[in-house]
Protein backbone atom coordinates (compact mmCIF):
# COMPACT_ATOMS: atom_id res chain seq x y z
CA UNK A 1 0.00 0.00 0.00
CA UNK A 2 2.89 2.34 0.84
CA UNK A 3 4.43 1.78 -2.60
CA UNK A 4 1.11 2.50 -4.28
CA UNK A 5 0.69 5.81 -2.42
CA UNK A 6 4.28 6.82 -3.21
CA UNK A 7 3.81 6.01 -6.90
CA UNK A 8 0.54 7.96 -7.01
CA UNK A 9 2.12 11.00 -5.32
CA UNK A 10 5.07 10.89 -7.73
CA UNK A 11 2.75 10.65 -10.75
CA UNK A 12 0.65 13.61 -9.56
CA UNK A 13 3.70 15.77 -8.89
CA UNK A 14 5.15 15.00 -12.35
CA UNK A 15 1.82 15.79 -14.01
CA UNK A 16 1.59 19.11 -12.18
CA UNK A 17 5.16 20.00 -13.16
CA UNK A 18 4.52 19.23 -16.84
CA UNK A 19 1.42 21.44 -16.91
CA UNK A 20 3.20 24.37 -15.25
CA UNK A 21 5.59 24.79 -18.20
CA UNK A 22 2.95 24.59 -20.93
CA UNK A 23 2.15 28.10 -22.21
CA UNK A 24 -1.52 28.94 -22.45
CA UNK A 25 -2.99 30.37 -25.65
CA UNK A 26 -3.73 34.05 -25.11
CA UNK A 27 -1.22 34.29 -22.28
CA UNK A 28 1.37 36.09 -24.46
CA UNK A 29 1.62 39.78 -25.26
CA UNK A 30 3.74 41.79 -27.68
CA UNK A 31 5.28 45.23 -27.17
CA UNK A 32 1.88 46.87 -27.76
CA UNK A 33 -0.10 44.64 -25.40
CA UNK A 34 -1.64 42.56 -28.21
CA UNK A 35 -1.90 38.77 -28.02
CA UNK A 36 -0.34 37.29 -31.19
CA UNK A 37 -1.45 33.75 -30.33
CA UNK A 38 -5.06 34.91 -30.70
CA UNK A 39 -4.34 36.51 -34.08
CA UNK A 40 -4.19 40.05 -32.73
CA UNK A 41 -1.86 42.68 -34.22
CA UNK A 42 -1.41 46.32 -33.36
CA UNK A 43 -2.86 48.75 -35.87
CA UNK A 44 -0.99 52.07 -35.94
CA UNK A 45 -3.83 53.53 -37.98
CA UNK A 46 -6.57 52.55 -35.51
CA UNK A 47 -4.26 52.79 -32.48
CA UNK A 48 -5.48 49.52 -30.96
CA UNK A 49 -5.10 45.75 -31.14
CA UNK A 50 -7.18 44.14 -33.87
CA UNK A 51 -7.63 40.79 -35.54
CA UNK A 52 -6.69 41.99 -38.99
CA UNK A 53 -8.55 39.26 -40.85
CA UNK A 54 -11.79 40.37 -39.13
CA UNK A 55 -11.57 44.14 -39.63
CA UNK A 56 -9.74 44.57 -42.94
CA UNK A 57 -11.75 46.06 -45.76
CA UNK A 58 -9.15 45.06 -48.36
CA UNK A 59 -7.85 41.53 -48.92
CA UNK A 60 -5.66 40.38 -51.77
CA UNK A 61 -3.35 37.49 -52.54
CA UNK A 62 0.29 37.94 -51.63
CA UNK A 63 2.17 38.22 -54.96
CA UNK A 64 5.22 36.53 -53.39
CA UNK A 65 3.38 33.56 -51.85
CA UNK A 66 0.13 31.97 -53.10
CA UNK A 67 -0.74 30.63 -49.66
CA UNK A 68 -0.68 34.02 -47.91
CA UNK A 69 -2.84 37.12 -48.05
CA UNK A 70 -2.26 40.83 -47.64
CA UNK A 71 -4.81 42.80 -45.66
CA UNK A 72 -5.57 46.50 -45.71
CA UNK A 73 -7.38 48.48 -43.03
CA UNK A 74 -8.78 51.79 -44.23
CA UNK A 75 -9.13 54.86 -42.04
CA UNK A 76 -12.67 56.06 -41.34
CA UNK A 77 -12.44 58.71 -44.08
CA UNK A 78 -10.62 56.28 -46.44
CA UNK A 79 -7.71 58.72 -46.79
CA UNK A 80 -5.18 56.13 -45.59
CA UNK A 81 -4.68 52.37 -45.62
CA UNK A 82 -2.49 50.31 -43.29
CA UNK A 83 -1.12 47.12 -44.86
CA UNK A 84 -0.48 43.82 -43.11
CA UNK A 85 1.41 40.96 -44.76
CA UNK A 86 4.30 38.58 -44.27
CA UNK A 87 6.75 40.63 -46.36
CA UNK A 88 5.38 44.05 -45.44
CA UNK A 89 7.07 46.07 -42.71
CA UNK A 90 5.12 46.91 -39.57
CA UNK A 91 3.46 50.35 -39.63
CA UNK A 92 3.20 50.51 -43.43
CA UNK A 93 0.60 53.20 -44.04
CA UNK A 94 -0.34 54.39 -47.51
CA UNK A 95 -2.02 57.70 -48.31
CA UNK A 96 -4.71 58.28 -50.91
CA UNK A 97 -3.51 59.26 -54.38
CA UNK A 98 -5.25 59.88 -57.68
CA UNK A 99 -5.04 56.18 -58.64
CA UNK A 100 -5.32 54.46 -55.25
CA UNK A 101 -2.90 54.56 -52.32
CA UNK A 102 0.90 54.86 -51.99
CA UNK A 103 3.62 55.22 -49.38
CA UNK A 104 5.28 58.64 -49.10
CA UNK A 105 8.33 57.37 -51.03
CA UNK A 106 6.14 55.70 -53.68
CA UNK A 107 7.78 52.29 -53.21
CA UNK A 108 4.51 50.57 -52.30
CA UNK A 109 1.35 51.31 -54.26
CA UNK A 110 -2.13 49.85 -53.96
CA UNK A 111 -4.43 50.31 -56.92
CA UNK A 112 -8.02 49.29 -57.50
CA UNK A 113 -9.11 48.05 -60.89
CA UNK A 114 -12.25 46.42 -62.21
CA UNK A 115 -10.81 43.06 -61.13
CA UNK A 116 -9.97 44.17 -57.58
CA UNK A 117 -6.98 45.49 -55.67
CA UNK A 118 -3.40 45.09 -56.89
CA UNK A 119 -0.24 45.71 -54.91
CA UNK A 120 2.90 47.09 -56.57
CA UNK A 121 6.20 47.05 -54.68
CA UNK A 122 9.49 48.53 -55.89
CA UNK A 123 12.33 46.06 -55.64
Number of strands: 9
User: Order of strands in the sheet with the most strands?
Assistant: 3-4-5-6-7-8-9
Q: Which class best fits the helix and strand makeup?
A: alpha+beta
What is the helix/strand order? Answer: HEEHEEEEEEE
**What gyration radius follows from the Cα positions, in whole Å?**
23 Å
Q: Proportion of β residues?
A: 35-45%
Mean pLDDT: 86
Q: Can you count the helices? A: 2
Shape: elongated
Q: Tell me roughly what share of residues is in helical segments.
A: 10-25%
Give the tally of structural domains: 1
Low confidence ranges:
none
Structural account:
With 123 residues, the protein is α+β, with helices and mostly antiparallel strands. It has one domain (25-121). The chain is 19% helix and 40% strand. The chain has a seven-stranded antiparallel beta sheet with strand order 3-4-5-6-7-8-9. Strand 6 and strand 7 (100-102) form a beta hairpin. It is elongated, with a radius of gyration of 23 Å.
Quick overview of this protein structure:
By secondary structure, the protein is of the alpha+beta class. The chain is built from 2 helices and 9 strands. The strands form 2 sheets. Strands 3-4-5-6-7-8-9 form a 7-stranded antiparallel sheet. It has a two-stranded antiparallel sheet with strand order 1-2.
Amino acid sequence: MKKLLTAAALTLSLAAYAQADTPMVGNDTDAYGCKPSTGASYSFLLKKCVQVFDVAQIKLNDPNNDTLAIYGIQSANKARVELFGADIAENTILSKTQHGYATADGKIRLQKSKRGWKLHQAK
